[in-house]
Amino acid sequence: MELFPDRAEAGARLAERLLDAHDPVVLALPRGGVAVAVPIARRLGADLEVLVTRKIGYPPTPELGVGAIAEGGEPVFDLRLLDRLGMTPESVADVVERERRELARRVHAYRGDRPLPPLEGREVIVVDDGLATGGTARAALRAVATHKPAKVTLAVPVGARETVRSMRDEADEVVVLLTPIDFRAVGQWYERFDQLSDADVLELLGRE
Length: 208
Known about the structure:
Structural class: alpha/beta
Pfam family, one: Pribosyltran
Largest sheet: 5 strands, parallel
Radius of gyration: 16 Å
CATH topology of the largest domain: Rossmann fold
Keywords: Glycosyltransferase, Transferase
CATH architecture of the largest domain: 3-Layer(aba) Sandwich
Protein name: Putative phosphoribosyltransferase
GO molecular function: glycosyltransferase activity
Domain Phosphoribosyltransferase: 8-172
């Protein structure tokens, strides 16, 4: 299966699948989702903004996500995973609070004091660079839903098949270009998959 050269090319290809959107707002999940979203917003002539999310990690192994939180939303937990780990949402309250602080820092870094654009009654396209477990995307979609948009589309270049299926319960539409059988990680489907910094995000948004 052909790889995407980079996030920008993936976004350009994804944009061609989104041309039916009517005056949408494109919300990118930083950091990687911003690089995918920029060519989409440009192709659609759409407003572009970031929607900040943070993974809630399992304390002994923070890389293992047991949930996620998005700005303006409540934490969304993988309750089955927590149960298997012998934990409850209350067990990670300290982690949630720490991630709330980091989320607020990033919101300020990316947008300053500006709120999200009005979403009520509008089409919203939520963009990330891929779907593995889908934790942050799920938190983002639920946060967006509280704004009462007319339609919510989740758009990603690549995703794990089971995760993509589960997202159809969270969004009105899910647009994905690749759902490989042998999906292991998002980065394996890109020739270039650099880690982006806050400065990279601001440059992509034209806010250096």
